[in-house]
Design goal:
Shape: elongated
Helix content: 25-40%
Strand content: 5-15%
Number of domains: 2
Order of helices and strands: HEEHHEEEEEEHEEHEHHHEHH
Largest sheet: 6 strands, mixed
Radius of gyration: 23 Å
Strand order of the largest sheet: 1-3-2-4-8-7
Structural class: alpha/beta
Distance between the termini: 13 Å
Mean pLDDT: 90
Low-confidence stretches: 1-14
Number of strands: 12
Amino acid sequence: MADSRRRLRPAMGRDTHIAAEGSMARRILSIKHLNSLPFSDEVGRRILLGLDPLIKAGLLEVDLKGVAQKPDYTLQFVKRGITGALHRTGCWVHPGTAGVSGTVNPDAVSMRNFCRDVHRCDTCEPLFRRVANELGKALADTALHEIAHLLGVNDGGDDGGGHTGDPGNVMFETRFHRDFSPLISDAKRTVKYRIVAGDSLSKIANRIGFVPPVGDWRTLYDFKGQDGKSNRALLRSGNPNLIFPNEEIWIPDATERLKYYRSVELQERSYSSEQLATMRRWIEEGQNILQTY
């Protein structure tokens, strides 16, 4: 294995980050399909920056071209369909998982958006704008997250699976953040909607994305706003089938939710010392979440 790695190094050239001079890296991490991504240079740069402590320690080489013949670890960017009923409602794309150990779905990262009317694409805005320091950063953060899982960061944290609510940590997941609330219960980020002729709770719910499996008109009827009052309490008839023009109800504020998500998702991230220690140990022992050598 050692001899084959020495032969690989000249071929990989400048797209491989070599271990510190005078040391032999224990393992090779190969990144597959990086060049297919938007802002691939930025994604690669950020991956190397995040893994720099392991690279400098002489434990890891990173093959950004994905040409290593027998890498010890592989992280691949693979596009998967995310247009099913669970992942798209009109123009609103709300994919579930952006990655699993060893794999990142770039579409699940790039297509996620927030819509004021899920059936009008002109009301939708992507979570990550198509610039290097947003979409490129998000793709790199997702890759570093899944690499950490490959290298043993699968315990502890806020869920027992290695994840955290700290937006400055690579293992961040929004659902564990102290200010997170799901769409159907986010009373903090709400706005008043004035009912017009022809409206029904079903029509309004359909426009804002309260549709199965997310919710339905009943979800909207019980939805609470910033004042703590539910729409059930605000509608004067007491009958969800009888609403009147100019009545006001609470609905999710897509603009404020987008602002919140960007504020936490775009923070700079790094590994904690404990996470780095775990990855060091796994590399030294030749362990991989997908296979133990």
